[in-house]
Amino acid sequence: MTEALARRRPRFIFLSNGVSEDERFGWRLVAANNRPMGRGIHAHDSLAACRAAATAIHRHRAGAATATAVDVARGHWTWRIGVDSTPSAVSVHRYLRRVECLRALAQFLAALELADPAAGVVRCFGPNSLRAYESTAATVQS
After folding, report:
1. Percentage of the residues of the chain whose pLDDT score is greater than 90
2. Domain-wise residue ranges, the chain
3. Over the stretch 105-119, which tens digit does the pLDDT of each residue have?
4. Which of 3, 56, 84, 133 lies most in the core, judged by the most C-beta atoms within 10 Å?
5. Phi, psi of 35 (to 5 degrees)
């Protein structure tokens, strides 16, 4: 596959906070037009662990549990995906209508099938790039 063709497909991007003493990694799935479609829930201590999490959701997408939720106070819809009863991915956008949320979830699942986690590149977006991600250390303790 040529590089130009690969750029026209959905793909994984791995984010790094770039902090050498406490480097963390998260993943996002972006559409062919570079718009983020969804992201992993957790920040990981290593790129290998982050890539493994992306690979797990890629491999088990057919059996993944999906859910939508509404924030009643604001009227925004979001979606969430779980693999092996573990929350794995969330929407990066909020939607005003449930039908838009469901459509975005279907598009994410379709893109997940086309994207290859092994081909994902690492990008450093600075120390605040992973602030929305949950820490894997906090998850283990709870």
Report:
1. 71
2. 13-127
3. 999 999 999 999 999
4. 133
5. -80, 135
* Cβ-proximal residues to 105 (8 Å cutoff; 6+ apart), any chain: 66, 68, 79, 81, 91
Q: Check if the beta carbon of residue 105 is closer than 8 Å to that of residue 92.
A: no
For residue range 9-63, what is the model confidence (pLDDT) as tens digits?
A: 999 999 999 887 888 999 999 999 999 999 999 999 999 999 999 999 999 998 8
End-to-end CA distance of the chain: 44
| Structural tokens at position 8 | 């026209």
In the block, tokens 């992306």 appear at 54
The one-letter amino acid code at 77 reads W
Task: State how far the Cα of 45 lies from the Cα of 62, in Å rounded to an integer.
Answer: 27
Tokens 């997940």: give the residue. Answer: 112
**Calpha distance 142→139 (Å, rounded):** 5
Q: Tell me the percentage of the chain whose pLDDT exceeds 70.
A: 90
Cα(61)–Cα(76) distance, integer angstroms: 25
C-beta of residue 8 within 8 angstroms of C-beta of residue 32: yes
Fold classification of 13-127 is: PH-domain like (2.30.29)
- Which residues have C-beta within 8 Å of that of residue 137, sequence separation ≥ 6? 45
